[in-house]
Amino acid sequence: MSFRCTADWSPAKSRMGSRNRQGLTLMELVVVMAILIALASILVPLFPSMIERAHKASEATNTSELTKAVQLYQAINGNYPDGFDLLTDGTQLVNFLPSAGAASPVLFTGDTMNAGTTNVIGFNYPMGGYVSAGPLTTGGATALATAGIVNLYPLASGGSQTTPPTYTGTMGWTPTFNPYASDTPTPLTTTGTTLPTVAYVNASGVLRANMATPSIVSGSPTQFVLFGVGRYSSMVGTVIASAPNLFPNDAIHENPAQVYERFGVIFQLEDAQKNPLPYAIFLGACSIESDGLESADKDLEGYYKSVKQVGAP
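^ thats the sequence. predicted structure below, dont judge the formating
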């Protein structure tokens, strides 16, 4: 009796079958997962600071470009851009500006704050308490008009301190993209009692933003005025394509449907002796944050402070 092996087996075919095997073994899967976990443990803690650094870099770029755009417009036209956002409804600060729950840590003598103003989030101090509402003075209006700023756009107001005002226009309403009470600006006059309420920046806020030196700061509550750069600015369509949007670092104020997220411009209206200037002086553009105003230098400073830097050996 003879036996025959009918199994068709050979070492070559065994190796071929091994090569055709699909998937990972349990050991290989464990190794891959261990590598991914190790990478995640390194990268995940860096994400918040990476996002903050990206925001700061974007803000610094936009602030610098906006400052250049104002200067370019002035060089071409002989006057500063017109049609800025008033940041008030004409009588008081609107209730959807970025705000913080604590007042400014440094206040110069003579500074005032509208401590009763809150925004949709329910905080009490617009821009960290560095900004307050006040009527535009006759001297300030003259300085602005001489510089070419003769039309300002009031923002919508109303509603409660926890609900944004409603807007019935065809474009709908959001605090950032369509915050206007009307498409008609408020013309500035230098006489009479019809001057609007504007957003003044106290001296400590201007210094905090690195936009002035102590030699030109007096502490007068009407020395520096802040305007927003919105879609009605005369710069739009001329020296800039559109009004840039701001991306704050704190999560509460990262929703443009709840908080005004535009950049601002600061003008000096009085000298260090509190005398009205004959011509408003442009100090620069700034990002409007919940804890204050920041120039390009201040944004870059925040960029480098957002994560620990690697020192040289």
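The longest helix spans residues 47-77.
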